[in-house]
Design brief:
Layout lengths: L3 H9 L8 H5 L2 E5 L4 E5 L14 E11 L6 E5 L3 E4 L7 E4 L8 E14 L2 E4 L6 E9 L3
Antiparallel strand pairs: 1-2, 2-6, 3-4, 3-5, 3-7, 7-8, 7-9
Length: 141
């Protein structure tokens, strides 16, 4: 990312326009590149837009380092956080490991919705049930 416009375009790009993660969560999100931590506050499960039939969602925090010169990259993901409709916490935190490749850092948050039937989780695959959103972009980490 050589220009501020390039960083802005990547930062604001809607990879999954039918499933905007920040809109679904309806909470305050703050990602810190130094600690690689996402803090979610003002969270209320009643405000989450679960697709019809879904009983659970899984959130995964990712940190991608991409070297635009060599095209080398590495993505580190958090352990998924599974949340059901009875979730009561109003805040939570997620963290990733540091990728070993240097380059532009792109923090992302993914969401997937599931329906639990007995002890099996069935992934929803519709456009409004799987999403990823860029939380921030920082040049050359």
């Amino acid at each position: 990312m050589e220009t501020p416009l390039g960083v802005q375009l990547l930062d604001s790009f809607a990879f999954t326009p039918s499933c905007i993660v920040t809109e679904i969560l309806a909470a305050s999100l703050h990602y810190d590149f130094v600690s690689r931590t996402l803090n979610v506050t003002n969270f209320d499960i009643k405000n989450v837009g679960f697709p019809s039939g879904a009983t659970h969602m899984a959130l995964t925090l990712g940190l991608l380092h991409f070297d635009f010169d060599t095209l080398g990259y590495q993505l580190k993901n958090s352990v998924p956080l599974y949340i059901d409709k009875d979730y009561s916490a109003t805040s939570f935190e997620m963290q990733t490991d540091l990728p070993e490749v240097e380059g532009t850092a792109v923090a992302v948050l993914g969401v997937k919705f599931y329906q639990k039937v007995e002890s099996t989780y069935h992934l929803f695959k519709s456009a409004n049930a799987v999403g990823v959103e860029v939380l921030g972009v920082r040049s050359e980490m």
